[in-house]
Amino acid sequence: MGRVVEVLNSSVAGRAATLDRPPLIVLLAVMTAYYIGARVGLALTAPPFPLAVLWPANALLFAALLLAPRRWWWMFVAAAFPAHLLAELQEHVPTAMVLCWFVSNVCEALIGASFMHWLAGPKPGLNTVRAVMTFCGAAALAPALSSFLDAAFVRMVGFGSSDYWSLWRARLPSNMLAALVFVPVALTWATLEPPLLRGITRARAVEGGVLLSTLLAVSVLAFDSGLSGTDSPSLLYLPVPLLIWAALRFGPPLTSASFMVVAFLVIWGASHGRGPFMAQATPDEALPIQLFLITIVVPLLLLAALTEERRAAQERQRASQRLFSTAFRSSPDAMAISRRSDGRVIEANDHWLELMGYRRDELAAGSGASLAAHLGETDRVNVASLTRDVGDFTRDVEVSLRDRRGIARKALVRQKAVELNGEPCDISIVRDVSEQRRTEAREREQRLQLTHLTRVASLTEFSTTLAHELNQPLTAILSNAQAALRFLAREPLDVAEIRTILQEIVEADKRAGELIHHLRQLMKRGDEEFVRVDLNQVVRQVLDLLHGEFVARDIEVRVGLSSDLPQVNGDRVQLQQVVLNLVSNACDAMRLPTGRERTLSVTTIHVYDGSVQLVVGDTGPGIAPNQLDRIFEPFFTTKDSGLGLGLPISRRIARAHGGTLVAEHRDAGASFRLTLPPTRLPVRDAAAPAQPSRTP
Ligand code: ADP
């Protein structure tokens, strides 16, 4: 039998889904079960009435169909046929009646099993209230419908003397009770995970033993001993508390088995003239027994399913708690749960204790300070402003925290509001990013140094021109001052002429001052500062600075600056460096003779999508298409004294500004296109120095 259950069970679990036909042993088991069921039913049939108090054969076939794949069904029906013939023909029932009954019996099993498959799916069980309700529906519907057929057959064959409706009324409760008694046992035990007894504690085994033996004793006493008679109906309910005990503590399998024992003893006692139902074992009088048992079994199965559902829900909750605590303990971040009311940390993982400098026993003793106690005022407000809704974790907030030992750290904090045992709490996740921030600062420092060095290097290249540019106003100042002195020595004093000379001195001085100012700006090694920047102004300043260079190298500069250019969000000095790099590369490129006019074009464009572009073009030899990307690689240079850092640094600056820098192929020469997004900074950040500029 164990093997049969295993095979049926495996079919339920889907493991035998690939088998086309049931193993022979299973077919034999179905045949035997049907035969025994029919014999028991016949034993409980009192002639001349052709119906039993309880008819288990159909219920057993119904259970077998439920546990098997649909494609096995016809073989189960075929296996039941010889069993049916064997059992019924022994009773000298007319052959026509025997065959008709087989048809109605099979119909009942098929209706029940199809109904269950339709509503509960191919993997039946009685572990949920919904499944029990569906099963009870099937257990009522199948006998109700098949009884129409059965009663018609009996009348047709003329077996017995009962009328159609008496037959229908008698068969329905008898077969319904059988389904309610036997199918749950088969379903619940067949779907138990083997081996059945593994994991059962000794206490539970003893409890189960006590329950079953008490139930047996009480049922025998109530229904099968001579003690109880029709005058003591209160004994009827003696087993009920024990059945409830089974439902509450042991779930559907033991509940259904216990009920089967009780049902058997009730009917057995009654059929032997004992117990409260004595003399009611004939089908026409059996209704009270059947109703009594049906009214007990339905709520009992529901109670067992409800208990099972609760147990499964608790198990799921425990599993999710286990999962949470594993994730909590093994998280690479510091995590703590704190009470909303007083901020006290009630649970924390090892990372948290380590980060904040607490011991676990201190936490248990209630001296684990809240996260807020480790934060400065501003950070405390920021963290407190994180959303308090129960839901997903909030965004990260970066804070500076000071641990218990006084060590300052940079950390990212995120929170989630939860309810623990009805109390509002917060889960805080703290990620220590001190090391990351230190590395970033080091990298930034190195980057700034490198950027500064390359800028100084490119300016050094123009030192002669710059010196010359500076010399011009200085010479003008000197010669104007000397001229003024000479005019002062003359009589009469030509005040108007002296004023004009002094005016020219002032202009020349201003020009020198501008140059020095631009140079200092480019030479200084300030921190990155993103503000609103007018790219046209940046271009003008750089071109201004290099004016002498263009004259010296005989370069014609064509400037086309867009008049409606939006400001960009950027670091002025870095953007100046990009323009300086592009312009000085263009000048270098045009050093080589190409036979073309040396023309530098600098254009700014307001693109339709709102972005800003700067295009620097030259009439040099251009860039080979296969080198358009290579020239942006660090240390790629074709110049004798080149560093090969100008373009990679310029591209990095462009990207840091959310933009791009690309080289483009042109018919004559090269062109570089810098694209920057328009600023979204508020107007007050516009901090362009109001320096006068001169366009060459
Ligand atoms: P460097 O100027 O020190 O060589 P860059 O990164 O600024 O470093 O430039 C890398 C290389 O790109 C240059 O050596 C040159 O070969 C090429 N290049 C840059 N600009 C131009 C240009 N306008 N025309 C032709 N080649 C250019």
Description:
This protein is of the alpha+beta class. It has 20 helices and twelve strands. It has helices at 2-12, 24-43, 56-67, 73-89, 95-120, 129-157, 164-190, 202-224, 239-271, 287-330, 350-356, 360-364, 377-384, 434-461, 463-489, 495-523, 535-545, 547-552, 572-589, 646-656, and strands at residues 334-339, 345-348, 397-402, 408-420, 423-432, 531-533, 556-560, 568-570, 599-606, 612-617, 660-665, 670-676. The strands form three sheets. Strands 2-1-5-4-3 form a five-stranded antiparallel sheet. A five-stranded mixed sheet has the order 7-9-10-12-11. A hairpin with a 4-residue loop joins strand 11 (660-665) and strand 12 (670-676). Helix 17 (535-545) crosses helix 19 (572-589). The longest helix has 44 residues, at 287-330. The protein is elongated, with a radius of gyration of 49 Å. The N and C termini lie far apart (105 Å). The model is unreliable at 1-5 and 683-696 (pLDDT under 50). The structure holds adenosine-5'-diphosphate. The site of adenosine-5'-diphosphate has 19 residues, from helix 19 and helix 20.
